[in-house]
Amino acid sequence: MELRKKRCIICEGGVPPLDEEAENDLLKSLTDWKINRKTPHRLVKTVKRETFMDAIELINNIAQIAEDEGHYPDMHLHYNKLTLELHTRKIGGLTENDFILADKIDEIIDQLS
Questions:
Q1: 98, exposed or middle or buried, with CB in 10 Å at 0-12, 13-18, 19+?
Q2: Domain harbouring 75, CATH code
Q3: 70: confidence class by pLDDT, cuts 50, 70, 90
Q4: Could you tell me if residue 34 is inside a domain?
Q5: What is the pLDDT of residue 1?
Q6: Would you say residue 67 lies in a domain?
Q7: Of 43, 77, 91, 96, most Cβ neighbours within 10 A?
Q8: How many domains does the chain have?
Q9: Is 66 part of any domain?
Q10: 96 to each of 19, 49, 65, 111, how far by Cα in Å?
Q11: Share of the chain above pLDDT 90, in %
């Protein structure tokens, strides 16, 4: 099943983050995401848009899907370059939720390209 067809499940903590093997397996489903393995592990992707307003449009679309999923990325905007970071704060690492949201973000990026 494609990750983007799944829903994020609320994480209350108390579960371990994914191990590196599971992270690497899920990473294969994504486009141009990297794993920063400094604690906490994070999914990271940088996207360049044509203009500042194109980047803002992308942010707004990502914000809506994040709100729908109840899972929120860190977004850093530098003019037309947007860097996204995902991790599950409650457990201090990566869960399947992070990969689900990353795949949904990829779908948004594809639609806006």
A1: buried
A2: 3.30.1360.20
A3: very high
A4: yes
A5: 52
A6: yes
A7: 43
A8: 1
A9: yes
A10: 11, 27, 16, 23
A11: 83
